[in-house]
Amino acid sequence: MFSPLIDQLINSLRHLPGVGPKSAQRMALHLLERDREGAQNLSEVLAKAVEHVHRCQQCRTLTEQALCNICSNARRNRKELCIVETPADVIAIETSAVFSGYYFVLLGRLSPIDGIGPKEIGMDVLASRFAEGEIEEVIIATNPTIEGEATAHYISERAKAQGIKVSRIAHGIPIGGELEYVDGGTLAHAISRRQEI
Amino acid sequence: MFSPLIDQLINSLRHLPGVGPKSAQRMALHLLERDREGAQNLSEVLAKAVEHVHRCQQCRTLTEQALCNICSNARRNRKELCIVETPADVIAIETSAVFSGYYFVLLGRLSPIDGIGPKEIGMDVLASRFAEGEIEEVIIATNPTIEGEATAHYISERAKAQGIKVSRIAHGIPIGGELEYVDGGTLAHAISRRQEI
Q1: Dihedral sign, Cα of residue A36, residue A37, residue A41, residue A47
Q2: Nearest CA in chain B to A38
Q3: Where are the beta strands (DSSP E) in chain B?
Q4: Are residues B39 and A50, on separate chains, in Cβ contact within 8 Å?
Q5: Which of A15, A20, A173, B4 has its CA 20 to 30 A from that of A47?
Q6: Which residues are in the Toprim domain (chains A, B)?
Q7: Neighbours of B157 (CB within 10 A)
Q8: Residue A30 in contact with residue B44, Cβ under 8 Å?
Q9: 3-state secondary structure of A18
């Protein structure tokens, strides 16, 4: 309905997650009518990010440096390694400020049906870190989904084979949550994994 | 929290309307983890759009051509001119398929407090179209806000001075709407502007 170039921009904006045709139209017109500088800036930063952002050599998170901020910080605890699925998970745990070790980002989870095997989640890199002998505890923080649990199981077997202690983050009722509003699956898990006090 | 370039990308994405810090983070990671081609494409189309999209010489809507699709269509009704605030309004009216004349896009509305006067809404261009003598009816479809009404009043005075018939689109209860859920302002307007049947 718009001119070809504007239609093309609307279509390109739909690559963004959670953006449907109406939002994409609103975004395109907003940028062109009122924020051309912002549009120009977004275009340049996007191109730069696509060109320069790659995976951290050590933990596989996304970064434009050879080593990410966390891996290049020598003052963290070398004995603990936390394994997560995505870079956003690293930020979530960092924000909670309870973990001072290093991370390893799988950038996915084992899912044979989607063709994601040990190689795709960087198991070779992870195995060589296990073999270095510096790590004393591996904390597995993959999501509590079927694939996440399978991934956790697979990694824990590999770590235990190297004599490393393995733990899984706790799942149950969120702090401040009310039982009444918690889903059945979580509640069942919380009861079966109850701990003596 | 992320590496500088990723943080910069997240900030740039916040220029998009309706995108807060969480959505911007999700968008940035989605593009970098899973859709680099889409990101590259968006960057290129954005740069091209910022460079080439300007205002249609005749109706002031956004287009990369000298004249937009509608203005360059000689088979429309030259006697009717519909005045709207934004390019999105043109598309909305075109979709309803009840109007076959030409448009004029103000790209805003009179708002002295924001420094938007007759010049900013292209009143000089519009006045010269009124003066051409081809237009028989001007349909004013600015939004029913205080500024939109003031703009409608101002334009109608200018058009009437040239002997052109002026009309305003109808405001009232939306078709298919239920009185119970219509706001008081709309209901008051609908009652005071009731029409004999």
Answers
A1: positive
A2: B15
A3: 54-55, 62-63, 77-84, 101-105, 137-140, 165-168
A4: yes
A5: A20
A6: 79-174
A7: 10
A8: no
A9: coil
Tell me which residues of chain A, numbers 66 to 105, contact chain B at a CB-CB cutoff of 8 Å: 68-69, 86-88, 91, 94-95
How large is the C-alpha radius of gyration of chain A? 21
Span B26-48, mean pLDDT? 94
Helices (H), chain A: 4-13, 21-34, 36-52, 87-96, 123-131, 146-161, 184-192
To the nearest whole percent, how much of chain A has pLDDT over 90? 78
Q: Which helix (H) or strand (E) holds B191?
A: helix B184-192
Q: Looking at this predicted complex, what is its ipTM?
A: 0.84
Q: Is A175 left (phi over 0), alpha (psi -120 to 50) or beta?
A: beta
Domains contained in chain A, CATH given: 4-52 (1.10.8.420), 62-168 (3.40.1360.10)
Q: Which of residues 142-181 of B touch A (CB under 8 A)?
A: none
Dist CA B107 CA B105 (whole Å): 6
Phi then psi for residue B47, to 5 deg, are -60, -40
Indicate the residue of A2, A43, A64 with minimum beta-carbon distance to B46: A43
Testing the interface with A: which of B22, B35, B37, B45 to mutate, by most A Cβ within 10 A?
B45
**B95/A1 CB distance under 8 A:** yes
